[in-house]
């Protein structure tokens, strides 16, 4: 973080905490410069940043004042999906979104990519280059089926932070979390089976179910505490459900962290009904709280939690390095790994193992957590500013996604089509539902840096939404 | 190839062609040295090589003589598997073999790895390192779902050599051929379906079927001309078969190339019975004949051939870069790619695309074809020498695998266990059958260089086989 960003954050916090009140005059540029031992221009840049965020307003010839704040938008209510098993639809929409990656000029507001431009990633690609130079034969050969031991050892170490005590032998490396989930599902389910999911759920996971002919039953989910255990229990009593897929830490798209008591409760429920929990911890390391939240896996005593994760969100998607902790399904998981993909490339595994072992990973993740948190604040400000009032916005406890609920009349699928022409790609909420619900919702990827370019996109987005509302009023 | 190897090959060919006859005296070292303009020691090395191969014998003080040759061992007869759909077994044995990769001291005679130690691969890892340095952001990001266009363009170019005219848009990059086959099967079949296979068939493909709950029906296959079209037709009349998996070019494990007429015939049969052909062309580029043999895909007119291949055998397994040409199943294949693995890592794709584009690939493959051909000749000599007479050995037209049929009494599964203690891993024939047939057979990976170490292994292997026969005679 640069000096001015640091200072801007500090001031934003003071405003947030009420140390400077709405309408109050802020210290002069000169005073702040002396107080913090930074240059005049640094203070000016900090003030400009806060101005962009509309936290402060300049008054000609008298300085900066704390802006009179609009209230924080409320958090969306508990979701209310159809409560019966359905076939997942929406593939055409997902494919369209994936294909947008082809066009280098499109701004991918809808995707799930992290920010891979930070200098703290440099040691990673230096290491990749080193691995290639020093171990050419190894990286060109078939790997062990379970994946490189060096890497599995590092993953086991990382998992301690989430409360799980596992060894390298308990871990199977996969080609990303997606492939991990796919192997886990293939290991446990067959076509026609029913699996419960949070609602909304990441569209990739939904399409996995569709691919394997598994039916989804969407369970009401609270944007602040996660899946409704009561609703899940009801569903378990009514349907022959094989398992439940959960993203309990820094949920995508809702951003919640399930409180520990609820993690234990859902596990107890799974035990009572003898179902499997597919736990997706891909964003778990990006929690704002320290130490990071525990996984459901860490409470598991009988190997019924299959935990999947990857370095996609914490490091980089292009690595395609993830893992499964398969619990009691190890044999089936090994077989399904062999059947569905064979071995994993050694080069990226070796590079990321070193990246973790030498401490670069922790430095990088610490940095990214801060960046994403501050980005999400900025994006929330922009939402407040450019979007109609009456919207609901999540308050994520980690990760980098915001979920926005717009007035019922807004059809984000239509809005997305219009934005497409402006080379802006967004993710309408319907992608996150098996049956295409949540058309008035929108997920925003706040890993995109808070540059002027992206502020403009948010402004355009807001205008498009306003237009949709006006059109409805005139119709 | 070094000078002495070149010379040794030349002399071996002359002996093979009968220019030097059995018992005849060979030119003196000095004569050859003058004739070929090489040093005395080069000729001596060449003669020593031929001596190791037992093609020539030294006679003290009078020079080298052409050895009286044992006859070439005969080729195995058409296979005769059980002709009904069965569930694939043998997973435990396959897993054991895969796990052997863990132990760096084990000699992997049973695996399918190519030789990745040749200097003609250097441009590849130089390119990998360059890609990392010059495109860090790109290689860290999610790729297009179909894979990098640069690479798909190169693959389309390569496919012209096999007679297929396709564009980059007709190709979907996969993480190796295995993942390609798995996506293709998932796109077409569901659990309980029946798929026909050549017999013997590569164990990886078998285990894929097992993984997805697909039944295999093994079709009699001739080691010189491929699957019996008559037997396949009979099976199609009797069972509701969804498709057939074929490795028509440089078959693994049998080494045949299906004659063009038979390729057309099997395609016509598939059309008549409206089934799918899963064509695995992974060894196709390693055919000895020039130009390389055509694919069945190249004759396809209605998109029923799903062709899978990869750079695993021609370049390196560790790349995990393969592709599917999905024909009329493109939509399903894209969905199953997304469901089963998501996108493919960009780094290896970019590196191999450049490797092909700049001509390194063709140079490398040309070289490897010669090396493998010469290796297979040497291994066949060793088989003749160290194994009991009465064995049958294939005469591959490409690739680098030999299939050996031993006397019925030999149980290679037992022999393999004994060899395991000597840190030698071999592939018993039973891995190549759904029901564990071919226990008296053995596949040998001739990509392993013909060094003294490997000659010794072959000697030990031969001894173990001899012992098995003796034990049976004494029992
Ligand atoms: C919740 C969740 N699970 C899985 C994935 C897929 O991860 P990977 O790219 O590691 O396959 C994503 C990526 O967007 C995700 O958000
Ligand atoms: C016939 C055949 N198909 C597929 C494969 C798997 O190839 P890949 O390593 O590219 O997944 C092999 C490897 O041994 C093979 O021999």
From TrEMBL, chains A, B:
Keywords: DNA-binding, Pyridoxal phosphate, Transcription, Transcription regulation. InterPro entries: Aminotransferase_I/II_large, HTH_trans_reg/aminotransferase, PyrdxlP-dep_Trfase, PyrdxlP-dep_Trfase_major, PyrdxlP-dep_Trfase_small, Tscrpt_reg_HTH_GntR, WH-like_DNA-bd_sf, WH_DNA-bd_sf. It comes from the Bacteria. Residues 1-69 form the HTH gntR-type domain. CDD domains: AAT_like, WHTH_GntR. Pfam families: Aminotran_1_2 (PF00155), GntR (PF00392). PROSITE patterns: HTH_GNTR (PS50949). GO terms for molecular function: DNA binding. In the C-terminal section; belongs to the class-I pyridoxal-phosphate-dependent aminotransferase family. PANTHER family: HTH-TYPE TRANSCRIPTIONAL REGULATORY PROTEIN GABR (PTHR46577), TRANSCRIPTIONAL REGULATORY PROTEIN (PTHR46577:SF2). This is DNA-binding transcriptional MocR family regulator.
